[in-house]
Write a structure and sequence with these properties.
alpha/beta, six-stranded mixed β-sheet, 309 residues, Uracil-DNA Glycosylase, subunit E, binds iron/sulfur cluster
């Protein structure tokens, strides 16, 4: 199994035996996780209060439990042009699952009669630094009222790998950084197994602000926020995008499909030519470590795409 020898060496360097190759295609070259990455790789000093909290954003069961109509609504809203989402329209209100109390009037920062001030246009022209500044002051959706800090994302602006999660969780909201806490440490271990560090990749979320109580993002929130991620992709120009978790996959692909069906497929992100693969969210792996082998398979698939395979 020559393609995985280096990764296994990294894991051995971590002092753990995991990500052992598993037969997934009829030969002996598959990959299987056989021990507890979480126990071996996660710093026990980390605050584990999240474990008793509601499932973190991006977490998911193996079988998608969201009601079918909710998935459809999210995908439909994400697919709709931003300027078609008019929150005070009864027709749109049935399409976008907004809670009445979270509905906001059109932000004063969006003068509709001046195209030069169209925030989406500004986002599409921003460099990474100015984009981060825009996110830090963004009030484009109701999450601006409940967040503590925006979470722009971080990493190498010239990265080959772009990892995309769902939305900030509690720790991210407090610190303003993507993928911190135990899920972040598990992601670090996954990167290490690939011979990568945070400085080699770029990590971001679909939403830049935490949904209250880690609830699922709503359709309008995705529509309002996705121009930021789209611009991040445009600026970083990764060789592969890894969508982590059901929601990130559905939002990026504008699909209501089940993550179990999306895994193992090769997609393209919005006709950019950038390949996209779907895998489980690290927070999900914290609760279901027996799925680590599948994630490793997905990461190897992504690496093959980078290498032109
Ligand atoms: S989630 Fe996105 S669109 Fe909503 S306030 Fe935060 S940065 Fe703005």
């Amino acid at each position: 199994m020559p393609t995985d020898r280096s990764s296994l060496a990294y894991l051995e360097a971590m002092g753990v035996d995991l990500w052992i190759r598993r037969d997934v295609s009829g030969d002996e070259s598959g990959v299987e996780a056989v021990n507890e990455l979480v126990d071996e790789s996660v710093d026990e000093s980390v605050d584990v209060a999240d474990e008793s909290a509601p499932p973190p954003a991006g977490d998911e069961p193996v079988e998608v439990t969201a009601e079918p109509e909710t998935q459809t609504d999210v995908a439909a809203a994400a697919a709709a042009p931003a300027d078609t989402v008019t929150v005070d329209s009864p027709a749109d209100a049935t399409q976008v699952p907004l809670e009445p109390e979270t509905i906001v009037e059109s932000p004063a920062t969006e003068p509709a009669d001046d195209e030069t001030q169209d925030p989406v246009e500004l986002i599409a022209r921003a460099d990474l630094e100015s984009l981060q500044t825009m996110v830090s002051g963004c009030e484009r959706c109701p999450l601006s009222r409940t967040r503590n800090k925006t979470v722009f994302g971080s990493g190498n602006p010239d990265a080959d790998w772009l990892f995309v999660g769902e939305a900030p969780g509690r720790d991210e909201d407090r610190q303003g950084e993507a993928f911190v806490g135990k899920a972040g440490q598990l992601l670090n271990a996954m990167l290490f197994a690939l011979g990568l560090t945070r400085d080699d990749v770029f990590i971001a979320n679909v939403l830049k602000c935490r949904p209250p109580d880690n609830r699922d993002p709503m359709g309008e929130e995705v529509v309002r926020c996705e121009p930021y991620l789209h611009r991040q992709v445009d600026l970083v120009q990764p060789k592969v995008i890894v969508a982590m978790g059901r929601f990130a996959a559905q939002a990026l692909l504008r699909s209501g499909d089940n993550i179990s069906r999306m895994r193992g497929q090769q997609y393209e992100y919005r006709e950019t030519g950038i390949p996209l693969v779907v895998t489980y969210h690290p927070a999900y792996l914290l609760r279901t470590p027996d799925q680590k082998g599948k994630v490793w398979d997905d990461l190897l698939q992504a690496r093959r795409m980078i290498n032109g395979g």
